[in-house]
Amino acid sequence: MRLMLSVFAAITVATLVISGCVTSYGTKVDADYVSKIERGKTTKAEIKAHMGNPQSTMNSGSAVDNETWVYEYVNPGSLSSMVVADFTGKRPASSAQSLTITFSGGVVKDYTFTESGRPN
Question: Of 110, 116, 120, 119, nearest to 34 (Cα)?
């Protein structure tokens, strides 16, 4: 009985460790919010209030008021799904998102949003 409890405890701990080993990176992008961004109207302050700080920023050329912000999110899927993939040949559920926004004069000049995989 004691051996069975020890084995059960070891399997439970191993399962919890394996399922939580792979984490996501970046800022998850709300696709509904992106659809509401308006070129020439939405401001940097509005984007920052909703999305937080971007992962990276770039100034375009010599113009100080032309700036590009990039938000990225990557979720590689859980390690347990990767282990299952080794046995089944199926790829784990993973997803990626990228939002690139170019500002001119403090408002959105242009943006692109891409999404791949299944959002988690």
Answer: 110
> For residues 59 and 68, what is the distance between their CA atoms, to the nearest angstrom?
6
- Reduced to 3 states (helix: H, G, I; strand: E, B; else coil), residue 38 is coil
H or E element, residue 109? strand 107-117
Cα–Cα distance for residue pair 93/69, rounded to 1 Å: 27
Any idea what DSSP says for residue 94? -
Q: Which residues contact 103 (CB under 8 A, 6 or more apart)?
A: 44, 65, 66, 67, 68, 69, 109
> For residue 115, what are the β-bridge partners?
97
pLDDT tens track for 14-64? 444 444 555 777 888 999 999 999 999 999 999 999 999 999 998 876 656
Residue 15 Cα distances to 11, 81, 82, 86, 102, angstroms: 6, 11, 13, 16, 44
Q: Which residues contact 32 (CB under 8 A, 6 or more apart)?
A: none
Domain ranges in the chain? 2-117
